[in-house]
Specification:
The complex is a heterodimer of chains A (280) and B (235).
Chain A lengths: L4 H137 L3 H14 L3 H11 L5 E6 L5 H15 L4 E6 L7 E5 L2 E5 L2 H15 L1 H5 L7 H4 L14
Parallel strand pairs in A: 1-2
Antiparallel strand pairs in A: 1-3, 3-4
Helix pairs in contact in A: 2-4
Chain B lengths: L8 E5 L2 E4 H21 L10 H20 L8 H16 L13 H30 L9 H36 L4 H48 L1
Helix pairs in contact in B: 1-3, 3-6, 4-5, 4-6, 5-6
The chains are: A alpha+beta (280), B mainly alpha (235).
């Protein structure tokens, strides 16, 4: 008999026990482990997916912000460029104006300074001319400048034009006016007396004469009376001298055709009389 | 010469006895349970697992997939029975490489016991799934005329299961034993290798047939439930 029924029953029991044992020690643990791992992997995948979506959102947001920032930066840059250009133009204009004003003020200052220097030179030249003339006359001719000037003045007084003589005479001889004799130097009493006599003689009547010393006076001597002024000046000499000095100092001007100074400049002993009548 | 290990009586006390088949089965049970315990008592749920765990997972998921392919959609309910059938038969066949070993599946008592287990398990699972009336209804479907044929089919397939496995395993052992007496060199090794292959195929056939029978007993009701659910879902 190939079948032993006791063995069959025993094997059925054995198999059922084996089913229980393998269920307990094999299938359940392994399947549970697989389930746990699958759940964990699914969770990790879901997390990764969520993170990826989040990252995508953040990336989009960042890109949008970046774009907006770029646009804003471009706008600001353009505005800043325009502002800077306007400010540059404004500052340039301001600097130009300031430079113009400064140039003008310097020009004015130079003109003023030149005028002052001119005046100072004029006075100094006059003083020097008088000093040289005085010394030359004294050394060579044993004559006093003041005396010679007074003499010449007296001679010129006698030869003044008749019209002026009439006008001055009318003003001085009515007794109300005083003839003011202004000179660049003090006239000695003798010369003052001689001049007084000459006036009296010229206008045929006693004339009130007052002498004043004005160091700034360019001319040698002048008369002021009745709103009239009569002077013998060395203005023309000084003008020629100034032209000569300018020619030396300014070569361009020197290149121009030279103008011959009047002979009076080079002939100090015979100054040409200049008559001028000016209203005060 | 013993045809089966049933005839190797190691101990007997009246009706009770311990033969070679039972002893070998115990040893196989011990080896399977101990191996399973040793591997699974330190299971890892991390991404990295040990090689033994990976091998076990491959075997068990493979069995699960096979059960699912047969048509049992919830394989975890059946893997205890079907998986144990496969592992027991396969292990019994693999051990034929041990000299002097006689597989318990080479005993008609063992194969009959396994076939009886299947014979009982089919209505057991069928009743759990379909209830008594639904299960018994399967015997008279499509017509009550089929009732005797269905009963004969149940009995004959149980007999076929037992005899097929017994014949294959016993014949393999017998052939090797006979060849050892005729050509003791080389040829028995080739036949042993062929026996291993036959054993694995038989393990697969036995367990997959059991799965098919169980599926046939349980799927009928599911088909009905599905056909009822479909018009409801349409509304």
């Amino acid at each position: 008999m190939l079948i032993d029924w006791f063995t069959v029953g025993a094997q059925v029991v054995n198999f059922l026990i084996l089913v229980w044992l393998l269920k307990r020690f094999l299938y359940k643990p392994v399947l549970n482990a697989i389930d746990v791992r699958e759940k964990r992997i699914a969770k990790e995948l879901a997390d990764a997916d969520a993170k990826q979506k989040q990252a995508q959102l953040e990336r989009d947001e960042f890109a949008n912000k970046n774009k907006a920032f770029d646009e804003q930066r471009g706008t600001l840059l353009s505005k800043a460029t325009d502002d800077a250009k306007a400010e540059h133009d404004r500052l340039l204009q301001q600097a130009r104006k300031a430079a113009d004003a400064l140039g003008k003020s310097r020009h004015d200052a130079l003109i003023t300074e030149a005028a002052q220097l001119n005046q100072a030179l004029l006075q100094r030249t006059q003083l020097e001319v008088f000093a040289i003339a005085r010394k030359t006359l004294n050394d060579l001719a044993d004559a006093s400048l003041e005396e010679r000037v007074a003499d010449v003045f007296i001679r010129r007084l006698a030869t003044i034009p008749p019209a002026m003589k009439t006008t001055l005479g009318a003003a001085l001889t009515n007794g109300a006016e005083t003839a003011v004799i202004r000179s660049a130097f003090d006239l000695p009493h003798a010369q003052q007396a001689a001049i007084q006599d000459a006036f009296n003689l010229t206008f045929a009547a006693p004339v009130k004469v007052r002498f004043e010393t004005v160091p700034d006076l360019v001319s040698g001597i002048e008369i002021m009376a009745g709103g009239q002024k009569l002077g013998w000046t060395i203005d023309s000499y000084l003008g020629s001298l100034r032209s000569g000095v300018d020619d030396v100092l300014n070569p361009k001007a020197a290149a121009a055709p030279p103008t011959m100074p009047p002979p009076a400049v080079v002939a100090p002993t015979a100054p040409a009389p200049v008559h001028s009548v000016a209203a005060p | 010469m013993n045809l089966t290990s049933d005839q190797q009586i190691l101990w007997q006390y009246g009706f009770l006895k311990l033969d070679g088949t039972i002893l070998t089965t115990w040893l196989l049970m011990l080896g399977l349970s101990l191996g399973a315990f040793l591997i699974t008592h330190r299971l890892s749920t991390d991404s990295t697992v040990s090689r033994w765990q990976a091998a076990l997972e491959i075997i068990i998921t493979g069995i699960n997939e096979q059960i699912k392919e047969v048509g049992l959609t919830d394989p975890q309910r059946y893997i205890g029975f079907i998986g144990t059938l496969f592992l027991f038969v396969a292990t019994a066949s693999l051990c034929t490489i041990i000299p002097g070993y006689m597989p318990p599946t080479g005993s008609l008592s063992t194969t009959a016991a396994l076939a009886i287990c299947v014979f009982i398990a089919v209505p057991w699972f069928g009743l759990r799934e379909q209830g008594l009336r639904g299960y018994l209804k399967g015997y008279i479907s499509p017509t009550p005329i089929m009732l005797p044929f269905n009963i004969i089919s149940e009995l004959s397939r149980t007999l076929a299961l037992a005899v097929r496995l017994f014949g294959n395993m016993m014949s393999g052992t017998m052939i090797i034993a006979i060849l050892l007496t005729i050509t003791p060199l080389l040829f028995p090794i080739v036949m042993t290798a062929l026996g291993l292959l036959t054993g694995m195929v038989q393990a697969y056939i036995f367990s997959i047939l059991a799965a098919v029978y169980i599926a046939a007993a349980t799927v009928t009701r599911r088909k009905k439930a599905d056909s009822q659910a479909t018009p409801l879902a349409a509304h």
